[in-house]
Amino acid sequence: MNNIRKYRPGEAGSSKLSEERDEFERDYARLIQSPTFRRLQGKSQVFGAGSGDYYRTRLTHSLEVAQIAREVAKRLERTNPFLSKREHPGLIIDPTVVECASIAHDFGHPPFGHKGEEVLNHILMRDHGLKYEGNAQNFRILMFLEKRAGSESGLDLTAAVLLGINKYPFLIEEEGRLKGVYASEWEIIRDLRSQWNMPEGCSTLEAQLMDLCDDIAYSTHDIEDGIRAGKIQMNATFFEDQRLMRHVVMEILNDPNKHKFGWEQVNIEQMVRQVLSDYLEQWEQIFSECNGEESRTRREMKARWVSSFASSLDIIDDPDRSWKKVALVKDGAEDMNLLRTMEILKKLAWVTLIKDFRVLRLQKRSEIIVERLWDSFIDKEKGQWIMPPDWIDSYERRNATWSWPRFVADYISGMTDAYAEKVYAELFASKSGSIYEMD
């Protein structure tokens, strides 16, 4: 069982288990020492990277997801005896594997958050029939683009960590797929899943846990940032605003994954109103307990909601798939009410932060930057002269399998927000930095 989980497909010819360090600890070291991990500090979470020292970036978000996931994994190990039987490689929860998956889950996100992802996908689909998607890009980075000593390409991670990152076990090029894995990496992922005898469409328990902890962080931490920024105002006028209610309800109804939450079982508008009312009431109670200190209240609110969600995570049977499911659980069954509550808080963060008109103005600027960068690089004969030489060397070594449009998307998506703006300024602004600055 250990060998199949610790197998490294990138090192198939010479891989030997380390006698000095656990294999998953080696994965952890490779991830946090990678340039991609460091660049997360310069990529937007909700507010643009550099907006302020307080607000989360992709890096701090990933670390917080990892902390939540590791603690929950340790508890689930203690409280679910079947895990110790290790009957199936996908029905195991190792805290280090979950932590590695959480660290790497946002590696594939481009600069400027969801807007950067949206623009790259639109351009690639429109002009070249190719898709761009952050989860798929994760695997392109981890299995191909990243470099480490002694390897031709990628970080050569273990099978357990690769499948722990694989929230969407599908070939993204299939008709109608919005998320998944690019064909170039899917061949290896599909082979690993076959070796593990994974049911079609099912993720490992470790991937499921990472995914839910990402949702927990999003629905709690992003709201904390929104309150700090004044985008979410903790008063009745804000929380009872009919336009806010309407926007949250519309986001729920327009979500392509809404079927997972059983919204048909409840009056959506009524539940949204109740959750927001309860949230404000809890804020006012904690605000009083904290002697009117807003910063303490924000942290305490966040901590209580994280604890409420995380302590409810457990493993139950998934009879529809003959598999196991990590879920928010109450009385031995999935707690759909709590799941819907978390979804409402996520939508609250989305409509107040992402849909704020000032944020949308910045996103429009980001869209222009990504589009102009693309236009500058997509003509191969001209673009190759304004790209870093090491990128061109990589392309020339692999151009038999690496199309120029995909290469350009890889280059732009690897940029931080600030670096994208720097390159844009060098190409289009009247003044730029010194040519001796290192790229």
Automatic annotation (TrEMBL):
InterPro entries: dGTPase, dGTPase-like, HD/PDEase_dom, HD_domain, PHydrolase_assoc_dom. Keywords: Hydrolase. The keyword Signal does not apply. Pfam families: HD, HD_assoc. The keyword Magnesium does not apply. Residues 58-219 form the HD domain. SMART domains: HDc. Residues 1-20 are annotated as: Disordered. NCBIfam families: dGTP_triPase. This is DNTP triphosphohydrolase. It comes from Paenibacillus germinis.
